[in-house]
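Data card: per-record layout.
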Amino acid sequence: MNIAIVILNWNGRELLERFLGSVVEHSAHLATIYVADNASTDTSVTYCKEQFPDRVTIIQNTENGGYAKGYNDALRHVDADVYVLLNSDVQVEKGWLEPMISVFETSPTIAAAQPKIKDLKRPTYFEYAGAAGGYIDALGYPYCRGRIFDACEEDTGQYNDTVDVQWASGACLFIRSERYWEVDGLDEDFFAHQEEIDLCWRIKNKGHRIVAVGDSEVFHLGGATLAAANPKKTFYNFRNTLFALVKNSAGSKYILRILYRLVLDGIAGVKFLLEGKPKHVWAIIKAHFSFYGHFPSLLKKRNTLQQSDDYYQIRAIVFHYFIKKKKTYRDIL
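The structure for this 333-residue chain is written out next.
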């Protein structure tokens, strides 16, 4: 099986200096490693060429199209059975790749997968961006085994199994190339954040499986592109969730779900205001107006996609977390 690890870079020399070496050391015997550069203006490409001239292949994109367009542009130049979309701030260790390859070799119905994603700053804890595999509730709120909203669990081996999930994290996303292009890759209207949830939702709607693999783990620094405190992240997260709901949610009641979600977004805005974060309130407002502007094109995409029967493991994660005060995945189930 031909594996390609593709690391998207934009002005990230410091991250490449810190993390690329671990990827080369623990992966080059099983995979081809690429750095896809989004038109950087720093010396990160020069660093890769000088330090790993024979072990890392550079793909030079002509513009910074964000995560979605950046990967779409780069992956057109990659010939592989399985792509690994790996963030530049992920540290890998010996043996991380073998369990992931095994699930693809033994299970042809699996289209995408992720390892456990741990917090590099707190190595015994799961990291926000994917933890041990992702789900969404009926209103589009993402949550994970090991992470509900901002509450991350300590890894005590409770999620060492391999299970079907609704989405795999874009921080370390394994995906069959055939399935990636079957759904036309990442949606470039998303630019960044939650585009992997939309991608996985479309793949699930085609009837394919997505799994989290507990035998493998990586360590994610997190916040290297946009920190949680950055209003731009708030904008993309709120807007892109609405995008994904319109495109992929099955049935005629999706409009009601959108309306409920807009109301809850308003409540979140009030919370930000009370916390003294007016820039985040403005980010939510801008996210909604951007959503309204994109709504006609989202409907066109919806009409060309196949919506499967809805499956929500938990229908209202907000209720369980904020009202019932259940903070862990196992408490909520």
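Known properties of this structure: The longest helix spans residues 278-304. The mean pLDDT is 95.

See the next section for split statistics.
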